[in-house]
Amino acid sequence: MSQSDLKIGIIGTGAIGGFYGAMLVNGGNDVHFLLRSEYQAVKEKGITINSLVNPELHIHPVQAYQDAADMPKCDWLLVGAKSTADNLGDIIAAAGKPDAKVVLLQNGLNNEDHLRPLLPDSMHLIGGLCYVCLFREGPGLVKHQSNGMIDLGYHSGPAVSKEEQQALLKEGAALLESGNIPTRLLPGVDEARWQKLVWNAPFNGISVVLNAGTQELVGNPASRKLITEMMEEVIAAARARGIDIPDGVIGYMFKGTEIMPDYYPSMYHDWLHKRPMELDALYGELLRLGREVGCSLPKIEAMLDQLKFLQARYLSNQ
């Protein structure tokens, strides 16, 4: 099937879904966007990507839907909905063809393991790890600060052989690259999810508790010490589970963060707008997996307790 014949669905058109979906539209693809609260605004004004590194991108009109049942059956689904989303399996099943390729663009650990039982066996499930700095500025408005790389790793589905899996990943990479989205292919997703969590676990939670962006966090000795200690706990748990985390990764991540524009991670924006935070995907699963191998993570556990308190306080007032 040629690129022009493929139908692509974006499940969850927030910052991640809006950005990658707009890039794919700009690359000449047939893209269909599922939205909820922002449906009317996007239908009327489209999607705008204000980027610090690329020219401004405005997509209008947008093929937008409020109900997955109204979407055409899609060949590829990019799932930008957060791990806190309800009925995600049913939505994906309604929007995708029986053999759809589902790319899960979420933070956390074991996301694919949790989603797999909710999908038809005939669908392919692919882990997608996004390395991008962006956030929603308003309905249909996305601020892109840097990067945009996606790592792809086959998780499960009817493609049994490595050759079949690699062929599907190459098809996905070609699709993304048509939208000028850099892509890497992985032998799997577990190691990459653990490595990404080394950065995500400290910076997401600390940005909320300390109400600060990355530049202030890496520039202050106290917060830098706490980030380091949390990173060390994630690495210890990963290695206890047999995951290979290279030496020097903490220094590498600090250097990368120091040259980034000042960035407030996704959890900060959930807290700011009083939405449920992805506490279980980023912290709860990590603590469970650590306990299974006798690994104590006191800094991570303390961070989760603080975030639970903050979330309970604002959700109880809604």
From TrEMBL:
Q: Domain (Ketopantoate reductase C-terminal): give its ranges.
A: 190-310
Query: Pfam families, per this entry?
Result: ApbA, ApbA_C
Q: Which GO terms are recorded in the biological process aspect for this UniProt protein?
A: pantothenate biosynthetic process
Q: Does the keyword Transmembrane apply?
A: no
Pathway per the UniProt entry = Cofactor biosynthesis; (R)-pantothenate biosynthesis; (R)-pantoate from 3-methyl-2-oxobutanoate: step 2/2
Cellular component, GO, one term: cytoplasm
Q: Which SUPFAM superfamilies match?
A: 6-phosphogluconate dehydrogenase C-terminal domain-like, NAD(P)-binding Rossmann-fold domains
Enzyme class (EC, first level): oxidoreductase
Identify the keywords attached in UniProt to this record, alphabetized.
NADP, Oxidoreductase, Pantothenate biosynthesis
Which GO terms label this protein's molecular function in UniProt?
2-dehydropantoate 2-reductase activity
Keyword presence, Transmembrane: no
Q: Which InterPro entries match?
A: 6-PGluconate_DH-like_C_sf (IPR008927), 6PGD_dom2 (IPR013328), ApbA (IPR003710), KPA_reductase (IPR013752), KPR-Related (IPR051402), KPR_N (IPR013332), NAD(P)-bd_dom_sf (IPR036291)
Enzymatic reactions: (R)-pantoate + NADP(+) = 2-dehydropantoate + NADPH + H(+)
Known EC number(s)? 1.1.1.169
* The Ketopantoate reductase N-terminal domain, residue ranges: 8-156
Function field: Catalyzes the NADPH-dependent reduction of ketopantoate into pantoic acid.
Q: Which family does it belong to?
A: Belongs to the ketopantoate reductase family.
Which PANTHER family does the UniProt entry name for this protein?
2-DEHYDROPANTOATE 2-REDUCTASE (PTHR21708:SF26), PROBABLE 2-DEHYDROPANTOATE 2-REDUCTASE (PTHR21708)
Entries under NCBIfam families matching the protein: apbA_panE, PRK06249.1
Q: What is this protein called?
A: 2-dehydropantoate 2-reductase
The species is Halopseudomonas aestusnigri
Q: What is the lineage of its organism?
A: Bacteria, Pseudomonadati, Pseudomonadota, Gammaproteobacteria, Pseudomonadales
